[in-house]
Design brief:
The structure is a single chain. By secondary structure, the protein is of the alpha+beta class. The protein has 2 domains: 1-91 and 108-136 and 143-208 and 270-313, no CATH class; 360-698 and 706-889, no CATH class. The protein has 30 helices and 16 strands. A hairpin with a 2-residue loop joins strand 11 (635-636) and strand 12 (639-640). Its main location: membrane.
């Protein structure tokens, strides 16, 4: 497996060592000048006397200027050896440090907060290449155009990395370098650590929350509190060791250090997650080239290929000790593995506080939502299963099915295709009985229940979200002014001043972006039309299969022709759905990049919107067709509707609901199985390739005890929360399946519940065992996905109303009972019409419709249409009224949480009281000094 270089060739960078060494010599000559240099983060080191191309924007593709000394240094590096001293930690007190495995420097005391990695190919291969370019007559090396470009690129990378590291040193970060090499390549690991002064400075700037007063760690699981009050044993609870403490907090202030808990313990005052978040913020702000070209940040350096990877370290191995270790002595990663990622913990509560402490709030919110949604699926699955079982139990009481089974040759049905023969309705006895499982009064009640369930779930998720946001100190979190994306900075054609920060940043004209977004929307519409074409293809495929089954002459195949065709069409449809999903995801990514969104949030939202719109049409188009359109435009004998010369599809013998249930089962469950298999296999294959590639470099060192940075570099690069949020997008599609079409498939919540139990453990295992540790990101909710959830919940109400009214036989049976009797005797005969008199081929055949002998609609049809429309209006108004009542009754923020918020604000006022007094005095207003236990006037 190739190492990640983001599309740039950084496999031949050991020539850079000489260039960097030359830079070091120049810097050493200036000695005192460097000692007196600017300590600012954003240094703009220019090299006087060397003209630069003003048309470049820092991207390698844009031809950035490279000073001649870097080119000469890169060309001569093969003749020079030695260590890259600029990257070494400044500590020379211990030349022979004791090996200290784990997350520390060689001194065993300095914590490693971040690691930068880059790879360099061996010299032997490059020297062989150079020898091929030697002119035999002249005895001199002939530079080729390709080698010249390569030298310029390597020199540019060397310059960028050198300046980046120099600026990190100016900030105050401590550094220590390690190397792992064999005859093919060398892997460099630069370990970074932030000392106390740097942490304090940036903690105040980033408004890190500081603890004021400890408070009890309350149980946030509603089910645990309910079971405790009922004195019922709770098998889902488990005591997880080393649970993070809960505090009242306020924004960190260096001047108020004495007011915060644990201020004397500099070593452990900031958590490891806070430390690497602060260091990442430094890395993201640090300039490596020209500020005016937006050559800023480690993310763009990774994209340009300067570094192969940049990541914080995991806190030790995840494997559990064999014996003799108490649970309290496990490291955080082992605790997450033991009490969360293992498959045996599938029925336990997730340790959300530990997840948040280790991975940050964004990932914790993802797992909190997935766990909360899965827990709420349990009652829906139980009710849905009971509804299905009730249908099985009452199947024998279905009067219409009995009439069909006992009809014998009484009902001669018209042919289902132009070349088919007539058939007797008694042949579909089995399908009529099975159709009752998905079309009985219980399914109607269940669809109403799921409409209420969906909105109630969202209301209580709001409360859960607010509780977690406060518990994790991110309720008032607002994303700082986001920096431009690295790709945007590299490709933006202009530079303009940011009106908020006052700093010049890359700029892309809004008019051009809107034009591109419009063009992209046309591409999206075209792709949606492709989905519709595939849908028509599947419909025609089902028709052809049905005709083939009828022409076999087998009574069994003739009877089950519709079922076989529907199942085959659903499988073909699933294959097309998965294929188009992959194609469109790649297309949507390219379109979103082309639209040039400035920030990562804007990029993510635009990409998510495109993918979800397409996936919505891709997954739901076929179920929508079966639920609301199939069988509506069939026509009648002598006047059949056609599509491309083929008769339009009719609903199968058991009705359209049983066909819809078959489609939902194949598409929903099939997709889940395929996705879970992929999630299980693909990370393991990637990890195996990564370990195998690194093992070749380690060579004989493989048997020795590995170091943490090497172990983590062997892991799969974490794609970040974006990939998991796309996984949540799949869960939202699942949410649509179990709410929009639940009237046809009561078992959908059960299959969703089983899938989510597996999904949680798969994702947990990936994050803990197979992925590098991601950079912790803050958040206060699940973002744009909640808006999509609300839209789906409202759409489900409308869809279920139409499904019950027009697809189910519930209202026709109800109206028949109201007009003619309560036992449904004669209902089957009532729903069948005779072929018109001019249908000479089979003059006495029957077909299902409310028509007279001339093919005109009967009075019952119009009465039924009025009932259906009235039901839709009444259903929607009643459900939406109840939903608004629930929204009004259930507050978004619990009352107990409001009290906690007020208490925390009061304590924050007390802690900052002296600052407020000083501010008043400085303004000349005068004030008496405040005691620690009092608040300042006017507060």
């Amino acid at each position: 497996m190739s190492w990640k270089t983001s599309g740039q060739s950084c496999y031949s960078m050991d020539r850079e060592l000489t260039g960097l060494f030359a830079i070091l010599l120049i810097m050493l000559r200036k000695g005192s000048e460097l000692q007196k240099g600017d300590r600012e983060v954003l240094l703009d080191l220019d090299y006087g006397g060397e003209a630069q191309n003003t048309d470049s924007y820092g991207s390698l593709q844009n031809g950035s200027y490279i000073p001649p000394r870097y080119l000469s240094a890169a060309a001569a590096e093969d003749d020079m050896d030695g260590d890259d001293s600029i990257h070494l930690h400044h500590d020379t007190r211990n030349r022979h440090p004791v090996p200290q495995p784990g997350n520390y420097f060689r001194d065993g005391q300095t914590k490693i907060d971040f690691v930068l990695v880059w790879e360099v190919r061996s010299r032997r291969k490059r020297r062989g290449k150079e020898k091929r370019d030697v002119n035999a007559e002249a005895g001199e090396t002939v530079p080729t155009e390709e080698s010249s470009r390569s030298e310029r690129k390597k020199a540019q990378l060397a310059q960028w990395r050198e300046k980046f590291v120099q600026n990190l040193e100016n900030v105050g970060l401590l550094m220590e370098k390690e190397e792992t090499a064999n005859e093919k390549k060398t892997i460099h690991f630069l370990k970074l650590s932030a000392p106390w002064d740097v942490l304090v400075c940036y903690a105040e700037e980033l408004c890190v929350r500081a603890p004021l007063q400890a408070q009890p760690n309350l149980d946030l699981n509603t089910s645990a509190r309910v079971l405790s009050r009922l004195c019922i044993p709770n098998v889902m609870t488990e005591s997880v060791p080393n649970r993070p403490l809960d505090y009242y907090t306020c924004a960190f202030r260096k001047s108020k250090m004495s007011r915060f808990l644990g201020c004397d313990n500099h070593e452990n005052y900031f958590t490891n997650t806070q430390r690497h978040r602060i260091v990442y913020e430094i890395l993201a702000r640090t300039v490596y080239g020209k500020r005016k070209r937006a050559e800023v940040g480690v993310d763009r350096l990774v994209n340009e290929g300067v570094y192969s990877a940049a990541f914080p370290l995991h806190e030790g191995p995840f494997e559990l000790p064999k014996y003799g270790t108490r649970p309290e002595e496990l490291n955080p990663r082992q605790i997450l593995y033991q009490y969360w990622a293992r498959w045996l913990k599938w029925y336990k509560y997730q340790p959300l506080d530990h997840i948040r402490e280790y991975f940050g709030e964004k990932i914790a919110f993802y797992f909190a939502w997935l766990g909360f949604y899965t827990a709420w699926l349990l009652p829906a699955a139980v009710v849905g299963t009971l509804v299905f079982v009730s249908g099985v139990v009452s199947m024998g009481t279905n009067t219409p099915a009995k009439e069909i089974c006992n009809s014998g040759d009484s009902y001669l049905m018209c042919p289902l295709c132009n070349t088919c023969e007539t058939w007797n309705m008694s042949e579909i006895c089995t399908m009529a009985k099975l159709g009752y499982l998905f079309d009985h009064p219980g399914t109607v009640i269940f669809s109403v229940f799921m409409s209420f369930w969906a909105v109630t779930f969202l209301e209580y998720w709001k409360r859960k979200m607010a509780t977690l946001a406060h518990h994790w100190d991110c309720m008032d979190f607002h994303e700082e002014e986001e920096r431009p994306r690295p790709e945007f900075a590299a490709m933006a054609p202009l530079m303009e001043q940011n009106p908020v920060t006052g700093v010049k940043e890359p700029y892309f004209p809004e008019k051009t972006r809107l034009s591109r977004m419009f063009t992209g929307s046309m591409v999206i519409i075209m792709m949606l039309c492709v989905v519709m074409i595939f849908l028509v293809t599947v419909v025609m495929c089902r028709g052809i299969i049905s005709i083939m089954m009828f022409h076999t002459g087998s009574p069994v195949l003739r009877t089950e022709a519709g079922t076989i065709a529907n199942i085959a069409g659903s499988i073909v449809n699933l294959g097309l759905i998965l294929l188009m999903g992959r194609v469109y995801t790649a297309l949507a990514e390219q379109l979103t990049k082309w639209e040039m969104h400035r920030t990562q949030t804007q990029y993510d939202n635009a990409f998510i919107f495109k993918v979800f719109i397409f996936q919505f049409v891709n997954f739901y188009s076929s179920p929508f067709y079966v639920a609301f359109f199939k069988g509506r435009f069939v026509g009648y004998p002598t006047n059949y509707g056609t599509l491309f010369g083929m008769r339009n599809e009719e609903c199968g013998p058991g009705g359209c609901l049983i066909e819809l249930a078959q489609q939902l089962f194949i598409i929903m469950v099939g997709k889940q199985l395929i996705n879970n298999v992929q999630e299980f296999i693909i990370p393991k294959v990637k990890a195996w390739q990564q370990k195998r590639s690194l093992a070749k470099v380690l060579g004989k060192k493989k048997s020795s005890e590995p170091r943490r940075w090497e172990e983590d570099y062997q892991l799969v690069e974490c794609e970040g929360l974006f990939e998991e949020y796309l996984e949540m997008g799949k869960c939202l599609l699942q949410f649509g399946f179990i709410t929009i079409f639940v009237a046809a498939f009561p078992l959908a919540p059960l299959f969703a519940l089983l899938n989510n139990w597996v999904e949680i453990r798969l994702d947990a295992h990936k994050f803990v065992c197979e992925y590098r540790r991601p950079v912790a990101e803050r958040a206060q909710n699940i973002g744009v996905w909640f808006n999509i959830l609300e839209a789906l919940s409202h759409l489900s109400v409308i869809a279920n109303a139409f499904l019950i009214a027009f697809t189910s036989d519930f209202l026709p049976r109800l109206l028949y009972q109201y007009k003619f009797g309560n036992d449904l005797h004669g209902y089957v005969n009532f729903t069948l019409a005779y072929a018109p008199l001019n249908f000479t081929e089979y003059p006495m055949c029957r077909y299902k419709a409310y028509r007279d002998n001339n093919g005109n609609y009967t009075l019952f049809y119009w009465e039924l249409l009025a009932v259906r429309l009235g039901f839709i209006i009444a259903f929607e108004h009643v459900v939406f009224f109840v939903l608004r009542a629930i929204d009004w009754i259930v507050p978004d923020v619990p009352e107990s949480l409001e009290l906690k918020i007020k208490r925390e604000r009061y304590l924050a006022k007390q802690a900052l009281a002296e600052n407020q007094e000083a501010l008043l005095v400085s303004r000349g207003q005068g004030a008496t000094p405040a005691t620690p236990g009092s608040s300042s006037p006017g507060q």
